[in-house]
Amino acid sequence: xxxxxxxxxxxxxxxxxxxxxxxxxxxxxxxxxxxxxxxxxxxxxxxxxxxxxxxxxxxxxxxxxxxxxxxxxxxxxxxxxxxxxxxxxxxxxxxxxxxxxxxxxxxxxxxxxxxxxxxxxxxxxxxxxxxxxxxxxxxxxxxxxxxxxxxxxxxxxxxxxxxxxxxxxxxxxxxxxxxxxxxxxxxxxxxxxxxxxxxxxxxxxxxxxxxxxxxxxxxxxxxxxxxxxxxxxxxxxxxxxxxxxxxxxxxxxxxxxxxxxxxxxxxxxxxxxxxxxxxx
Length: 280
Hints:
9 strands
């Protein structure tokens, strides 16, 4: 495996004892040996730390201490990471089987690409499949017109990017991935895309998305303040329709329909056994 790049995976966590074991297993069971796994816990008071200790022989580094939030926790991991490629997977989300092998092969074959995205599966609190959102490759043109479809659980990039644009902005607590993408686009990084499900996001009542708190609006206002002269951050019906038309032409809506009809309600483990052998 020395010929393959080291991949550093960061898991930020706080009181996600219900889900973090599945997250950890999704990383340490990858069929890829050259990995570095760092778990940064924010001082959980539930059983999270006990679960981390259960697998600490498979974890490169872990810590449990108070922090200012998710972005700081992720950055702590990034700053300790020694891999050639990095990503983060939240403590209630999942890294899909063969994801790291797919990512590694792509970066080895595409030396001019520094950032990679793929598909992200949606699962519920019981790891049952909801659907897979078949997105298009992120493009600067769409972002300039307010259309962002980024799969954070399927984001991977070369570590050298940090030397050029910095780490996550810790003043952002919900849209930190979007702000990071904007900086990538401003610096004209080439964004690659793989036709594979790389991660899974868990939809449940305790997520930031489900809570729909003010942090989303606050982050959006800050994005407008900083980058509003170059990018739009308000919903655009016109450009969303253009995005949808491109998806239609490329058959992504059909793929999404067929996928949902076949897999909705099934356990994610069943998908893991079958889908990655028989892709559409």
